[in-house]
Amino acid sequence: MLRPLLAAAVVVCLTGGSAQAARCGGDFDSFVASMAQEAQAAGVSTGVTNAALGGVTQDAAVLAFDRRQRYTFKKSFEQYVSTRVGPGRINGGRAMLQRHAALLSRIEQQFGVPRHILVAIWGLESDFGKGDTGKLPVVRTLATLAHDCRRTDLFQGELLAALKIVQRGDLPLRDLIGAYAGEIGQTQFLPSSYIKYGVDFDGDGHVDLRHSVPDVLASTANLLHTNGFKMGQPYDEGTPNFEAMREWNRAVVYRKTIGYFADRLAGQ
User: Fold this and answer.
1) Exposure string (b/e) for 152-191, b if CB count within 10 Å is 16 or more?
2) Neighbours of 36 (CB within 10 A)
3) Which of 79, 116, 125, 202 could form a disulfide with 265 if both were Cys (CB 3.0 to 4.6 A apart)?
4) Distance (Å, rounded) from C-alpha 62 to C-alpha 79?
5) What is the mean pLDDT of residues 31-55?
């Protein structure tokens, strides 16, 4: 599945200047050492880089999965939506709308993104936090993908962003667990999205997209709001809101599925 910003190849900037990119390919340990130096230049402490990158190894399964990603959205909308939005998931989404009604009202008021869109995304990405959000160490995953020369600039940026998440105390290293492209949490943010759009909506001083439902839903709303999503406007294909969702996922089929699911949750 394509994730937020994954196909856009947006690299997060952690410092005001530009660091020399580490050279992809070649000896993996030398590459990791270069990334550690780059992270420290970007303000990540030696303690964090040593803990995160010390002894890290490549993951062949991650590379194999990355090679298969291009075929994810070859299905038609009708074929795809039939596998993702069924009665069980719709009923689950309606239950979440009731359970979190007060929270969703606050998020709508602050960010101007309708609750049905947020719950649809939440359901598609992780079955409302109950499904598979990944079991892989994010640093190892991203170091593997960054070392590979196919999209090294993208994943070098994501690796630096992941280290920044640990540096600022949002998640401890042991809890920095994600999916096959380093996506984290209940709505599967890439680390750069985590840094750019993450919101501490429960007020505990940390942006926790793995365990905090308020943080998860508010951060998802913040991403859409920042990219121009407007409350009360249509979100079907060809509209500005549909384009705003492109920052979430570039695939037209996936964005249409979000809209379809949201409509079902709203009883349409």
Assistant:
1) bebbbbbbbbbbbbbbeebbebeebbbbbbbbbbbbbbbb
2) 21
3) 116
4) 27
5) 97
Contact 224, 247 (CB under 8 A): yes
Structure tokens at 64: 């194999």
Can you tell me the distance from the alpha carbon of 237 to that of 249, in angstroms, rounded to the nearest whole number?
Answer: 13
Are 160 and 38 contacting, i.e. CB atoms less than 8 angstroms apart?
yes
Integer Cα distance of 223 and 111 in angstroms: 9
What are the φ and ψ backbone dihedral angles of 170, each rounded to 5 degrees?
A: -70, -45
The one-letter code for the residue type at 205 is: G
CA dist 2 and 56 (Å) reads: 25
pLDDT of residue 9: 40
Cα end-to-end distance, the chain, whole Å: 27
**Would you state the structure tokens that stand for residue 262, as one six-digit string?**
């949201």
At 172, list the tokens: 């401890």
Which pLDDT score is estimated for 73?
67
DSSP-assigned letter for residue 189 = B
Catalytic residue among 38, 78, 125, 243: 125
State if pTM tops 0.85.
yes
What pLDDT is recorded for position 68? Answer: 80
Burial of 63 (0-12, 13-18, 19+ CB in 10 A): middle
108-118 tens-digit pLDDT: 999 999 999 99
* DSSP state, residue 235: -
pLDDT tier for residue 14 given thresholds of 50, 70 and 90: very low
d(CA 96, CA 106): 15
